[in-house]
Amino acid sequence: MRFADVIIPLNLPQVLTYGIPEQLQGTLQPGMRVEVSLGRNKQYAGIIDKLHDRTPELYSVKPIKNVLDEHPVVNEIQLTFWRWIGQYYMAAPGEVMQAALPAHLKLMAETSLVWCGEPDVLYEWSDAANEAVFALEQRKEITLSDLRGIVGLRFFAQVLNELIEKQAVLINDSLESTYSIKKEKIVMLAHAYQEEAAIIKLFSELERAPKQLQLLMAYTELSVKNGFVRRQDLMERTGSTAAQVKALADKGIFVLEDRQADRLLYTGKQQNIDIVLTPAQEEAYTKLQQGLEEKNVALLHGVTGSGKTLLYIQKIKECLATGKQAVFLLPEIALTTQLVSRLMAHFGEEMGVYHSHFSNNERVEIWEKVRKGDYKLVLGPRSALWLPYSNIGLIIADEEHDGSYKQKDPAPRFHARDAAIYLAGLHSAKVILGSATPSVESLYNVQHNKYAYVPLKERYLGVKMPVIELVNAQPTAGVPYGGQMITPPLQQAIVEALQNRRQVILFQNRRGYAPFQICTVCGWVPQCKNCAVSLTYHKSTDKMHCHYCGMKASVIHTCPSCGSNRLTSKSFGTEKIEEEVKQIFPEARVARMDVDSMRGKKSMNELLTKLDARKIDILVGTQMVVKGLDFAGVSLVGILNADNLLSFPDFRVNERAFQLMEQVSGRAGRTDGAGRVLIQAYNLKHPVLEWVQAHDVHTFYSNEIQYRQYFGYPPFSRLIKITFKHADEQKATIGAELMAKALTTLDGLTVQGPGPAIVPRVRNMYIMEIWIKCPRDGKLLDNVKTFLKEQKQIITGTRGLNSIQVLFDVDPV
Q1: Which of 161, 117, 109, 167 is nearest to 139 (CA)?
Q2: Do residues 106 and 34 touch, judged by C-beta distance below 8 A?
């Protein structure tokens, strides 16, 4: 094995082959990190993909410079999974590696400047360089980041050139880990006081120093209780400072020592909880057992509030009892908050949680606990699939219909539900897909006998489904009401809920205060200068925001087009609704749940805690309130603008609208069945509203699948979206037209486009799209992907188009 294929964390179309030096022969394994060079002096930490003895023919091989691990950080099954993700979703190996590895496992090449100035040479430095030279003389080596911080951006290039021209520095590119071990101070009793007589004497001596005596007594208590004493615990127990603890160390009474600390301290308490299933759950569980014996994938179709989680817990316990690992996927981080404490009670320290709100250091430690097998159960969103599992027995994808399982940007643009099924196959594991509103694709796979089907039609303990009422959003003649946001019937229902000391959820799928302003004289609408979208007014910042690039602008009071001051707000977002609800119900405690209000690390947890403690009466929110929230006090749900959900230009619009409305209605009356749902709409005769009112998934599916078949949409075809981005609109168009022309040479495809995207400009990049419908033929699909990659290379290699971005999205949702 003289050569190694190495994955470099760059968007390169393939892995690169490096030679294995003689001293490393026999020591390297796939999954190890190695230091390699690319170009003249760029150093990278790559992952070994394969070892072989095939000499590359097209380029001369460079040697591997160094091995960075004693054992692989990525196992063989993970590497196979990475290859499939890259092949199916048309992502480069380096893009998959970048997504899969925690940041601190990707060693960074930080360029540094090493001082080599001659001590007897009198240099003449500019004023801007003096401070940098002083830092180099003192520290001998600084990074480019340090230099930028010392001299500022304005003088950075000038000072760097000055140092290099005078040959006062050497440039050093070295790989270094950004992961740091957490250390904490441990307090120990000095050896001289280990004997009982010595410690009794010490207590007597400290009687005149009450604070020191208190520290000694607290130390004794914590030592007996925990076996060791953390300085932080000792300080918290006694209200003392680090200086007071150090004073006892200086006296020779305490000894302070640094020890490695676990960032992931387990704080919950595992309990022996017996799972008691209702007759309906027992029946579903029996069917689930039978289904998973016959099939590898089972669809658990349980209505909202039916207690699917109890069935999951039972299956996880069975899986862990066999010595295997289990993975519990959720579409969003927000859902983990409520579920964690519930699962911790059953699985304790065997369970780990993984998501993007953890720090980079914490994610490395979670990675290691999974690799070593300390965590038997992992809960998390789609990123949890990347962890180094060695023996998965069960994967659960709850809310399997949710679009958040699909990664949008950056690549790899994979679908976690589908990827989980492939990963389970690599481990010979079983998969449970759970939902109250299954995706059309999953129901189609059930219909064609690919998945087992397990219905759970009753709510837990026989609680009734909520009553759904349709409310005409058109204002009644002579009865004005709050900007037509909350109709009189909904206001009356809120009054009744509050009188009964129940909670209310109001759902509006737009954030902000007013989605856009418009001049009533000439029709001018404020637009983002970077993106082809209107700006949204946010009252909390008193600014106009772009929800695509984040740009903020001052509020406009005079129309720049016609000079009129008659600008008005159109439509409404969660922020506006929150304000109006506070005006109508001034005594009610109102909160908002959307991306803007949930930016803090603990924001979601704090809000859900308040909601659970009945400290919130009315919750206004976007899609975040739809997904899996379970609160006994909620009796009323109001959907404020159903028409918006039903009018989006997408072939999945009916499916998404049905799922959203059915899911949000399921938040009402989960414990006593006394739930009401009011849906405000202008078009009350839309068939989707009828199906939601009847909770009729099957009629919705039978209608939707006919429409999909007639127009050749998934699951009857595979879709590939090709996106072209460039700062020059003409070049984006030329690139898209070249691809469309090339696609005419392929038979069996339906090609739509090129045409501008729904939002044709984002961050000053013009966007063109081509959509391909490909028949469900695996061989043809592979050929199309190969063809598209080749054409991308041709287009980006064309003179004038080398900076065009060509992005592929397989199975877009």
Answers
A1: 117
A2: no
**How far apart are alpha carbons 392 and 367 in whole angstroms?**
15
What span, in angstroms and rounded, lies between the C-alpha atoms of 693 and 705?
20
Instruction: Please count the CA atoms within 13 angstroms of the CA of 692 that sit on its side-chain side.
Output: 30
- What does the alpha-carbon distance between residue 769 and residue 165 come to, in Å, rounded to a whole number? 48
List alpha helices for 227-305, DSSP H. Answer: 231-238, 242-250, 279-294
In degrees and rounded to multiples of 5, residue 439 shows phi and psi of -65, 155
Q: Using CB atoms within 10 A of its CB, is residue 97 exposed (0-12), middle (13-18) or buried (19+)?
A: buried
The Cα 454–Cα 381 span in angstroms is 24
Beta bridge partners of 38: 42
CA of residue 131 relative to chain centroid, distance: 42
Provide the 3-class DSSP secondary structure of residue 635: strand
Nearest to 110, CA basis, from 34, 63, 171: 171
Are residues 704 and 655 in contact, defined by beta-carbon separation less than 8 angstroms? yes
Residue 678 pairs in a beta bridge with 469, 638
Residue with tokens 């230099």: 147
Paired tokens of 467: 């009553």
SS3 of 384, please? helix
Phi–psi pair at 699, nearest 5 degrees: -65, -40
Residue 532 and residue 521 in contact, taking contact as beta carbons nearer than 8 Å: no
> Which residues have a Cβ under 8 Å from the Cβ of 357 and sit 6 or more positions away?
333, 601
- CA–CA distance, 513 with 527 (Å, rounded to integer): 16
Name the residue among 443, 466, 578, 581 with its Cα closest to residue 511.
578
**Secondary structure of 3-52 in the HEC alphabet?**
EEEEECCCCCCCCEEEECCHHHCCCCCCCCEEEEEECCCEEEEEEEEEEE
- Do the beta carbons of residue 631 and residue 611 sit within 8 Å? yes
Q: Which two tokens stand for residue 571?
A: 């439509």
10-residue stretch averages of pLDDT, the chain, 813 residues long: 90 91 90 86 86 86 87 94 97 94 73 77 81 84 79 78 82 60 76 79 81 84 75 84 85 80 53 80 95 96 88 95 95 73 84 82 87 92 94 96 91 96 98 96 96 91 83 66 72 93 87 67 82 76 77 85 81 80 92 76 77 90 71 87 79 90 82 82 90 92 94 93 94 96 93 88 90 92 95 93 93 88
Q: How far is CA 9 from CA 106, 359, 536, 779, in A?
A: 8, 21, 37, 29
3-state class of 333 per DSSP? helix
Nearest to 507 by CA among 638, 660, 659, 670: 638
Beta-carbon contacts of 178 under 8 Å, excluding residues fewer than 6 positions away, are: 103, 104, 107, 108, 360
- Which two tokens mark 675? 């739930």
Residues 444/708, Cβ–Cβ less than 8 Å? no
Number of H helices, E strands in the chain: 23, 33
Closest CA to 770 of 746, 799, 800: 746
Q: Is the dihedral of CA 39, 43, 48, 49 positive or negative?
A: negative
Is residue 699 within 8 Å of residue 691, measured between CB atoms?
yes
DSSP-assigned states of every residue in 180-240: ---EEEEEEE-GGG-SHHHHHHHHHHGGG-HHHHHHHHHHHHHHHHHSSEEHHHHHHHHT-
Q: What are phi and psi of 778, to 5 degrees?
A: -60, -40
Pairing mode, if any, of strands 33-38 and 552-554? unpaired
Residue 77 to residues 323, 432, 651: CA-CA distances in angstroms?
A: 18, 21, 36
- Name every residue whose Cβ is closer than 8 Å to that of residue 685 and which is 6 or more positions away in sequence: none
Report how far residue 470's alpha carbon sits from residue 45's, in angstroms, rounded to the nearest whole number. 59
- Read out DSSP for 394-450? EEEEETTT-GGGB--SSS---BHHHHHHHHHHHTT-EEEEEESS--HHHHHHHHTTS
Q: How far apart are CA 697 and CA 707, in angstroms?
A: 15
Three-class secondary structure of residue 656 per DSSP: helix
Check: CB of residue 346 under 8 Å from CB of residue 376.
Answer: no
Q: Tell me, what amino acid is at 167?
A: Q
